[in-house]
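Please review this one:
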Amino acid sequence: MSALPNCVWCGPVFEPTGYADEGRGLLFALEQAGVPVALRATAALDPDFRLGLPSAMREALEQQQRRAIRAPYVLVQHYLADGFADAENAAYLVGRTMFETDSLPPHWVSRCNTLDELWVPSTFNEETFRRAGVRTPIFVVPGGIDTELFTPAATPLSLEGLQGTVFLAVFEWRARKGWDVLLRAWAEAFSPLDNVTLLLRTHAKRVHGAHRSGADQSPMTVRREIERFLADACDGRSFHDVAPIVVLAEDLPADAMPSLYACANAFVAPTRGEGWGRPFMEAMATGLPVIATRWSAHLDYMTDDNSLLIANMGLVDAHDPDTRAYDGHRWASPSAVDLVKHLRFVHDCPDEARAIGARARHDMETHWPWSRAAAAITERLHAIDRIVRHGSTARPVHSSDGDHRETSERLCVEASVFEAGSLTGVETLLVAMADACGNKMRVYPRARTPRRPAYSVPAARLWPLLERYAGRAGDIEGGLRSVAPRAEAAPTGAWATEHARSVTMTWLDRSDEAPPVAPSDGAWIVCTGDRVRGSVPAALTASLLTAADEVWVPHHAAYEACTRIGVDQSRLWIMPFGVITDRHTPDAARFQRPRDVDTVLLLPVFEDADIASAELLLRVWQRVAQATDSVRLQLLVPQESRAPNAFQPSQRLSQWGASLQARFRSGRLAPGLTAEVLVTNVCEDTLPAYVCTADVIIAPGATNSSVWHIALACGRPLIVPASADAEPLREAGGAWVIPTSTAGAMDTLCLATVLRETLDPRVRLPRVDAARAYAGALPSWATIADEVLQRCARLRATARSRFEEAAR
C-alpha cells in the first residue's frame, strides 16, 4: 500500500460544540493510528475550555497543531458546508459535514459540489445529500465513541432536586430538538406524585454557532419558556402540576459529561432530525437506555434491540423561527403518545430498561470505537493518493468513430477555462473534443491562472492538458502532484507561431477589452461567445472582418451583428449549445421543492441586460399573482464565487440582487407576493438542479443560451422574448414567445396572460411534452465536438495548402 499523503485538518476543536467534539475524537484516533495530521483549529471563544479536556487528548491535539504543513497536502474541512472554502495550494479538497433534515440549503449544495469528495457520518446523509443535488463523490465516514471515557462506572454529579427515575435530555433549546414533544409527553406520562425527575441540560440560545450568551443561558430563562409552554399547550398547567423538572443551563467541562450521564436512569430525545446525535451515543456508552425518534442519522447505530425508538408519524414541513436553513425541507413528527409509553416503560420496568442499556453499551464497545472511523479515513487517504497521482477518476464519455488525432495535434485552443464567470460550456466542449481526439490537442489558459476543478467533475480530464501544454510545472512529492502556476504567461498566439499549418481556436472572454492577437501562421477561428450580442465591439471589428478564417457565434443576434459589419456568411457559423446527456434530463437531481405550492416559476438573472426584464416581470407579477394561487416565483441571482465554473456576476448585478432581497424582506414589494429571491452560487452542477425544481423557466434574454438548452433538455417549457432564436421554439410548442417592443421590452399584456396560463396544468402539460420532444433533437456536446473537429480539419487542410504554396 502506498504511503499516506500529507493531511491538513481544519475545523473547530477547542470548544463545546458537536463538530468540535467529533473533531477531537477523529483527530485523537488518527494520532493513535499513526496518521500524521497537521491540525489548524478554528479560533475558540473560550480559551479555558481546552484545559478541561483529558490530558492525553489535549497533548495529542496540541502536537497536531504544532505539526508543520508540507506541500502537497490533502485538506479536510470539518464544519458546516457553507463554510467550505477554496484552497489553491491543496492537492485535494475534502469536506466533512452533516445535516438534519430531508434536504439541504441550496448554498450547501453549491459548496459541496466544489469539493473533490465529501465525508458524511451516516447513510441517512449519504441519501439526503445526493437527493438534494450533491454530485461530488460521497463517502460514509462514521462517528465513534470513547467507551473508556463514557462508562457506567463514572461518578455522578452532585445535583439538587433529583429523585427517583431520572430522565436526562441534553439539547439546545431549538424546535428541531423536540422539546415541545418532550414537555407534552412529560405532562401526560407522570404526575407530581410520581417518583421521577426530568433533568434538562439545555441552553436557550446559541451565539455564532459556538458559545452562548450569559443572559440567555440562565435556568430562569429556560424555566420561563417551560412555564409558557405548559400554560399554552398543556391545558394551563404549571411547574407544580407536572412531575419535577430540573434545569441545568451551564457549560460543563468535556470530562464532566460522563458524570452527568451517571446521574440518570435513561436518556430521552424526541428529536425531529439529527446529523448524527452524539449525546445519544454518549448516553448509550454509559449504559443508559436511550429514547429517540425513529428517523434520521442515529438509526445507523440505534436499533430496536439497543434503544427505545419513538414512532415517527410522518415527515412534516420543517419550521424553525430562528433560521431559514430549513425552508422547504421536511423532518420527523415524533409521536408524543409513543414517547409517553416509553417513559412509563423505563419507570415501571427498570430491570428491562437496564438490560436495553447494557446492550447499548456492548454495541458501542464492539462496533463504534473511534478506531473504526480512523480506519475509514485512512482508507480514503490511500484512495485519494491514487486518484491524485493518476489524475481524474472520471472516464471518457465519448469515443468518436472518426480519426481526429492528426488534426488535434495541430490544434491550439486559447480559452479562459476553469475560471469563475462562464456558463457557456467551453470546458464541456473541450472535454468532448479531447475524448474524440485522444487528448492530443493543446489547451492554453488565457490571461488568468485557472483553478483546478474538483476531480469528480468530468471537465477535470482537461486539467492534465493544461499542465502539459500550458507550461505548468508538476512537482512530485509524497505521491501527490502539486501544480504550481507558471512564472509568466506566454503571449496569446505564441503556440501557433511555433506550429505552422496549425489551427488556433480563440475563445473570447466577455471581460476582454483588447482585440485578440492573430497567430502568425495557420488558420484562425474566433469564437465570439457573449462578447458579441446585438453589435460588434469596435475592438473586434478588424479581427472578425479580415483576420479570422472563421467566426463562430452562439446565436442569431451575434450572426446578424457580424453580417452587418461585412463578415462573409461563408465564414460564419452559429455553433449550437450542447447538452450533457447524463446530467441534463427530466430526472436530474433537484433541490427541495416548496411544498406549499403546485407551480414553481424560475427566473434566472445572469446578465446586467436581464435586470430591466426582471424588474418588468416583477411589476407584471404583482398585478397577476393572487393570494389564492398555489404558485411561487423564484428569482435566481448568482453570487460572487471563486469556484471554477461558477458564474461570476458583475458588480451591478450583485448590488441589484442584494437590493432586491432587501426589498422583499422589508415588505416594500406587494404584501404577500408569492415570490422569493435566491442569491447563491450558480455553476454547472447547480443550474440543472434549480431548473428541475421548477415547472416553467422564464428566460429574460432574447438570445439563445445554455439556460434555454438545459431547460428544454430537462423537459421544462420556457417563457422567452421574441427573437430569431426563439422561432424554432415557437414552432415546436416548447415555449411561450412574448412579443417585444422596438426597445426590446416584453409586451406586458401578453406576459400577464402567459403567466396566468402557466398556472393551469391543462395548458402547461402540452408545453412540457413539446419541450421534451424538442429536447430529443438537441445535440450533445460529443456531437458538436465532432462537427468542430471536422471544421478544424478542413481549415487545417486549407492552411497546409497555403503554407505549401508559399514555400514554393
Q: What stands out?
A: The chain has a mean pLDDT of 84. DSSP finds 25 helices and 28 strands in the chain. The longest helix spans residues 781-807.
